[in-house]
Amino acid sequence: xxxxxxxxxxxxxxxxxxxxxxxxxxxxxxxxxxxxxxxxxxxxxxxxxxxxxxxxxxxxxxxxxxxxxxxxxxxxxxxxxxxxxxxxxxxxxxxxxxxxxxxxxxx
Length: 107
Prior knowledge:
By secondary structure, this protein is mainly beta. Helix content is 11%, strand content 42%. The model has no long low-confidence stretch (mean pLDDT 85).
């Protein structure tokens, strides 16, 4: 199982700090919440945003701007730019937070 280690003494699966961080993030945040963070990577499929220690989220191209694929709008973004996003889903078991920009109130 990814994210778990076997305790050789007790033969039990033990949480790693990263898995605990993801569960804490899911507990403290919710779908629809607006979160802010800097862009740390721009990829072919979207923007990677640093949300907090050990937690990164992705804004998929299709969630950048309504009515477009998003590819043409990537030029508006750069690494280090702090952006507002809305949480679309949190999946700690997959270590994934899906974010959106076009879903922000007023967009």
